[in-house]
Amino acid sequence: MRIPDRLQPLLEQGLIDEVMRPLMSGKEAAVYIVAASGKYCVAKVYKEAENRSFRQRTAYTEGRQVRDSRQRRAMEKGSKFGKEQTESAWQTAEVDALYKLGAVGVRVPKPIAYSEGVLLMEVVLAPNGEAAPRLCDCNLTEAQAWNVHAFIIRQVVMMLCAGTIHGDLSEYNVLIAWDGPMIIDLPQAVDASHNQSARALLVRDVNNISAYLARFAPEIAHTRFGEEMWALYERGQLFPDSPLTGRWRGSTRRADTRSVMREIDAAAQDAMRRRGR
């Protein structure tokens, strides 16, 4: 097996001892099983920008804070240095999200180290001791589908309470580990309070999971957890243990545009009277 160029420095530095085998390849990165300090780990090797298929990153990076003013200006200008910094920030966003979400109890892989476009993480295992399969590779009973759905919905609630939305959640980035589902792949994680697309991305995340699990439990397709949890979040009433029903109805009341226009006209006339004084 050819060793990826980005893994060579880690071998030379002794961060990893051996590259065992490829595990999977996605639109953002290729993942390998490696040996490090006498145990197996996962090495996520981010692909170069021109080799990735993940598009429209601007919608995801809106609202992300960059502390270094020089770095921020360069990223805004799109200079060569700025593009390098944008790429680095896209990758390290996953590291930051893993630490942040892990600290509040969300089931995400434990990061070990990050170096030069490679993220080392714990390997997530299935009950048989092999690498855990993705949700998309699992056949579930109806009861299992409901249990997995309830678990993931609660994880999404915990993430939202921590101010984070996955942004690309689906059956392809949930692993079924020996001790329950685990959420992976977070470079596009969204700041819930500073991103205008936050609600749409949250609802899409929840709907993606619900649509897949509805293959095994059709009634899941009729739930509206995404809209419900966002409505609670907007009102400051969402907590990690908030009870949810899966039912939600948007407002059906028609806007009273005539009253609104009367108020606008009255305010304009009042302003004119004040200026006339």
CATH superfamily: Transferase(Phosphotransferase) domain 1
**Spans of at least 5 consecutive residues with low confidence:** none
Q: How many domains in all?
A: 1
Distance between the termini: 84 Å
Strand order of the largest sheet: 1-2-3-5-4
Beta-strand percentage range: 15-25%
- Count of DSSP helices? 8
SSE order, as H and E?
HEEEHHHEEHEEEEHHH
CATH-assigned fold name? Transferase(Phosphotransferase), domain 1
Percent helix among the residues? 25-40%
Number of strands: 9
- Helices and strands: which structural class? alpha+beta
CATH class reads Mainly Alpha
> What is the name of the CATH architecture?
Orthogonal Bundle
Q: Which outline best applies? A: globular
Average pLDDT figure:
85
* Rg estimate, integer Å: 23 Å
Largest sheet: 5 strands, antiparallel
Could you explain the architecture of this structure?
Strand 1 (18-25) and strand 2 (29-36) form a beta hairpin. The chain has a single domain, classed as Transferase(Phosphotransferase), domain 1 (Orthogonal Bundle). The strands form three sheets. A five-stranded antiparallel beta sheet has the order 1-2-3-5-4, covered by helices on one side. Strands 6-9 form a two-stranded antiparallel sheet. A two-stranded antiparallel sheet has the order 7-8. 28% of the residues are buried. 39% of the residues lie in helices and 17% in strands. The chain has eight helices and nine strands. It is globular. The chain has 277 residues and is α+β, with helices and mostly antiparallel strands.
